[in-house]
Every structure is written in structure tokens, then in C-alpha cells.
Amino acid sequence: MSRGIPGPNRSGLELSPRCFFRRTPAVAPVMQSQPFGGASVVTGVPVGPSSGSGGGSVNAFNDAQLQKAIEESQRGSKKVHVAAPAPAKPKVPVKREPTYEEQLAMVMAESKKTALYDFERRAERLKVPSEPEEGAAGSAHMFFRIGEHTIKRRFWSDNSLNNVYDFIQCHTLVFETFGADNLQLVNMTTYPASILDLTMDGPRTLQACELWPSGQLSIQRQGDDPKKALPPQVNKMATPGPD
């Protein structure tokens, strides 16, 4: 009987092909691990280094690659998480100290503001007579030199010199030129120029002071030299002051 074909057994029975089994012994695959330390390992059994002239260099290359992979793995495990930078805080402007000129300007502005307040309060207490209409009988034309400006205003001939002085003290141009300083009136109508004494001449009328039908006065700080007073420029007049 040929091998592999079933035949009668010792009991004289024919064996069916379905009952025929062929056992093939299982052979475990032989796997060679990666070289380590110059020796190969086969199924757990150390094997000597590979033969051939290039075996040592190959093992050294493999060892270097393995060491590099280990280092990269360690570096990856030790990677530190870097937090996102915090948003930048807005810059606060540094307060600059004012210079001497700026401080002086602020003091002057504050002083002028205070003087203007005092000027307005004083003007409210003063009584300025109403201005006569143009061409009205008995009116006097007065011209005033205030700094570089000349203003014109009409008064009644029976108004007093004090009424004229009150008008001068209420005029904004006077405040801008002299501030809150005391003033003196220089009569430029007659020659030579002379200072009008408000203590004596204040209650007198314009007609009695020879300032009618017209008169010219120069405004100075009290104590200034009347010889340096400038006459009014009749052809260059500014806006009249308050009534």
C-alpha cells in the first residue's frame, strides 16, 4: 500500500479517507532579535557575533541608532509644557512735571482769573450813567487813551468826574492793560498835562472841570509820570465800554 492512502487495519476494517489524519509537527518560527552589545539572540539563546569583515561596524551602527532612539524617547517624556505668555499690561503714561515756564503761566492765569473776578464784583457796585444819544443837547464827548488804544464815550455835561472814573474802572480794556492796579486820570485837554485829583475834582461836573463839550483823558497807573502820558488818538478808537 502506498503511503498516504488508507488501507485495512489490523482489525480488518477499511479506514475511510475522512478518518485519515496526517500530523505535521509544529515548528516554532525562529526569530532573531535586534543585535545588542555585539551578539545576536535567537529564541533566547545567545549567538556569537556575525561573521564577516563588516559585522562589527553594523552592530556599532545599530547600537548608535538604538541609543539615539532611547534619548529621543526620554526627551519626549521630559518635555515641559510652556504656558502661553500673559497679555501685556497697558502702559500707564508717566505724569510729567511742569516746567518753570509752565508753572509761571499757570500762576499768572490763576492770578488773572482772581483779579478779573474782583474787577467784575467792583464793576457791579459802580454806578455808570447812561450814554446820551448822538447829538443830544448837553452831552459831552470824552476820549480816553488806554495803553495803545483810544475809546470814545458820551456823557451828560452834569455828570461828575467820579461817574467818568467809574466807567473807566468797569472797562475790560482797562483791566487787560492795568489789571487791578490803582489808576490816575491825566487831563490832556489843556496844556500842560495834569493829574486830576479825584478827592477834590471827583464830585465836580464835567462842565466845571472844563471837559465840556469835549475832553481828552489819558489813563495811567497811579504814581506814573504824567509827562509820559500819551494823548488819545481820535482817529483810532476802540469799541466803547459798558454803559
User: For the record, what CATH class of the domain at 120-228 applies?
Assistant: Alpha Beta
Terminal CA distance reads: 156 Å
Number of helices: 5
Mean pLDDT: 75
Q: What's the CATH H-level homologous superfamily of the domain at 120-228?
A: Phosphatidylinositol 3-kinase Catalytic Subunit, Chain A, domain 1
Judged by helices, strands and strand pairing, the structural class is alpha+beta
Q: What order do the helices and strands follow?
A: EEHHEEHHEEHE
**How is the main sheet built?**
5 strands, mixed
Q: Spans of 5+ residues with little confidence (pLDDT < 50)? A: 35-54
Spatial order of the strands forming the largest sheet: 4-3-7-5-6
What general outline do the C-alpha atoms trace? rod-shaped
Cα Rg: 61 Å
Strand content: 15-25%
Helical amount: 25-40%
Topology-level CATH name of the domain at 120-228:
Ubiquitin-like (UB roll)
Beta strand count = 7
| CATH-defined architecture of the domain at 120-228 | Roll
What are the key terms here?
single chain, 243 residues, alpha+beta, Ubiquitin-like (UB roll), 5-stranded mixed β-sheet, two-stranded antiparallel ribbon, 5 helices, 7 strands, rod-shaped
